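Office hours follow-up: a student asked to see two folded examples consecutively, so here they are.
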Amino acid sequence: MAVTQRRGRRIMMTPDELDAFLTSERTCRVATVSPDGAPHASTLWFAWDGTSLWLYSITRSKRWADVRKDPRVAVVVDTGEDYGELRGVELTGTVEFVGEAPRTGEPCPELDVPERLFARKNFGLDEMPHDGRHAWLRLTPDAVASWDFRKLGGIG
């Protein structure tokens, strides 16, 4: 994973901080581009496996239709209320479709780890429930930008 940082290095997360942040957070915002060029942003739960961000998307959504036409995305995961608490990560790249769409639970060894991580994190289960409406997108980012304003020590 290439790491690109346009923001000040003082507030950039270390690789360990980045991994811990993406492992603990649940919600991300996914930006896609519609065929007419209009941007579209939507919210999803995700799982992080240390290399890739796994998105479990409804296959009848605008997001899914957008990435079928243009798989380039930007994803933001962030948290914090006050300025000095703000932390986040922006990941950009091209998503890949993994497994059947929609996902019904057919054996797919490539999905064993992300489904276990996702089910534990979001449902408190050891196995992924399949509803026949969602499918997997994997983002192995081309670029990552991170920020942790807590590192400023109250200095804006």
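And the second, which I mentioned at the end of office hours:
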Amino acid sequence: IPAGFDFDAFSTDALLTRMEVKEGRIVLPDGVSYQMMVLPRNGEITLEALRKIASLVQAGASVYGTRPQRSGTLHDLEHMVEYEELVNMMWGRNNTPQGCSHYGKGTVYWGMSLTDAVSKAGMMPDVTVPEKRKFYYAHRTLWDGEIYFLDNHEDTPLAHTFIFRTSKRYAELWNPVTGKRYSLQSTLTADGRISVPLQMAARESYFVIFSDAQSTGQLPVKEWNMQEKTTFIQGDWTVDFSEKLGGPGKVVFTALTDWTSHKDERIKYYSGTAVYRHNLMMDDKRSESRYLLRFDKLASIARIVLNGREVGTVWCSPWEIDITEALETGENKLEIYVANSLMNRMIGDSMLPEDQRITYSATSIATPGMSLIPSGIIGSVQLVRQMSASNSSDK
């Protein structure tokens, strides 16, 4: 499938009972529509299906596929004259290895790549996705707008100017992790599409919404070229592992390492919630800046409490959270409640007598040879000050 296009597979029954053509597009009863139909590569199509395809092409559909060679059913043998005539009307009588043929209001393409057929049909990509990287998207059209879901499916950040196949003028970014909405800068291209520059963190995803009406509320404009000043949080951390769950209680971490690499087996095989505590110093909080708490690696989920105020939960990319409202000038009491998978405790328990185990399962789930799942805060925790470009001169 060419980049920037999506597809659905369908059965012969769906072809016969659910498809019609409106304004050159193949349309289903639920409103989903398609610009082109792709036929089986083996050239095997029943007469009943061929009749339906012919009616769709005649009504204006575009079809791409190998010239049908046979029906594949004994029932159609006595109707091969009709079968061959339908093929000749759509693919031409000369049986050329490559070409396109007009039949009624529609066109049939064959013998070329699907990318070439799409180009010849004048089809524009739904969205211009980045080349040579794993990137996914989904698109839904509403009566008053367009919804695009974008997914940077790689472990590296992305900056890309996306061109969306829509003429709706106003674009918004909806962040599914924070629930925040932003207005986006957009440009109308020469061919009537909308160009929007976007940046995404590794493994980040969000929605881009288009409409012809501006939002009733005054949404902030999303700034991509924010200036950042990063401070690595230094010093020891007190970490409290619940003794009821087999942990050692309070211990001191001089470095933020994976629990599974710890020498103490009460930490190595710990499962549950452990509380990291650290006193964070803020010399001078600037009112014009935003402050983020950012993690190198977090396994698996963390609830952030700052100065007794619950800030929120970090559980996915971009592994950061805005702590601006709770942060104060001077000393700040930071608590991070980190929870991991139950599997590590079950692996540890599998090596113990039953009367010493913390977990229980009717049937064996874990065995001593299984790999432990990384857990805890791993690497560094960073305090990130973000400034808009207009304020970046004041470091």
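Two things to take away from it. The helical segments are 12-18, 47-58, 80-91, 114-120, 265-268, 343-349. Residues 12-120 form one domain.
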